[in-house]
Amino acid sequence: MFKKILFATSATPASDHAARVAFNIARGYDAHLDIFHVLGVPSRGYSQVVVDVKTKERVDVDDEYMSWVKEEVNTYYSKYLENGLKFDINVTVGFPAREILRQAKDTNPDLILLGGTTGDEDESVYKKSVASTTLQKVAKSAKCPVLIVNRPAASFWGGLSNITFGTDFSKSSDKAFDFTIKVAKALDCEVNVFHALDITSVSTGKILSQDDIEQKIREAFRMIRAKYEPALKELKNYSMDVWEGIPYIEIVKYARDNHSDLIVMAHHSKKAKQEDAILGSNVEQVIVRAGCPVISVNR
Asked: Which one, of 239, 139, 145, 142, lies nearest residue 183 by Cα?
């Protein structure tokens, strides 16, 4: 399933949970792992003076310093790098999202894996927002699935048993569903197909009556059955549900109630129309709120 994995890391405890998943997947699929570290942000334009993401000190970056950082990353993950793991460690300077996407373009991975932010919000070099800007930009623009491990993962990849697939019935969701089925078959997982009916006035332009809500729920459930059930029948276990509410909150609640190990959703491209942009923001909110890893698929 995966031959090349790009693991973007700050090489700090914030990325430790993602690291365990990244190394586990790489070993499970005998995949090549590109351990990629953006060591800091230029203090000004293309200056070689950089604010180091780990030390938060201003440093002059030269070949010697880059080699030292690479060795530090190697040492940090040394316990994972044994027993024939295929890997490279690459280090660069720049803004994380831009450099991660550039590295993905150069190496063409099957999966990009990201961890949490670099640490305390006030001290972080990367300036965490409500949903990390790096996560937003990479998930939105990447050409392959993006797995975000923002909190401790109860299960490693090979131990997944329950996947929640959140759909908005878009073409992007079709791609995300295909990926979900592929994973479920490979790992013998149960799949829960879920649609959250957005009943907020921002989405609908009005306050819906309960009769309207119930009608829309029935329509959404019919769409789920028509669109997804033929493929779901190839699995041992699956379920289909529609809830109403604020989508990202309902998806997080649904995944938690079903003890899901993974959430899969579509992330609409940067050229999406306004209503799709709202749906895309739901993915970003799920990423930072969910208690399990989230995979964003947009192609």
From this structure: 145
Q: Tokens 């997944």 belong to which residue?
A: 160
Please give the class, per CATH, of domain 4-148. Answer: alpha beta
Neighbours of 112 (CB within 10 A): 27
Backbone angles phi, psi at 238, to 5 degrees: -155, 165
pTM for this structure?
0.84
**What does the pLDDT look like over 186-199, one tens digit per residue?**
989 999 999 999 98
CATH 3.40.50.620 fits 157-297, yes or no: yes
**In which residue ranges of the chain is CATH 3.40.50.620 found?**
4-148, 157-297
- Whole-angstrom distance, CA of residue 150 vs CA of residue 134: 12
Q: Structure tokens of 98?
A: 């831009």
3-state secondary structure of 40: strand
Q: Chain-wide mean pLDDT for the chain? A: 85
Tokens 């009916």, located at residue: 197
Q: Are 183 and 189 in contact (CB under 8 A)?
A: yes
Selection from 142, 138, 148 nearest residue 21 by Cα:
148
Cα–Cα distances in angstroms (integers) from residue 187 to residues 13, 28, 181, in the given order: 28, 11, 10
The alpha-carbon radius of gyration of the chain (Å, integer) is 20
Rounded Cα–Cα distance for residues 276 and 261 (Å): 26
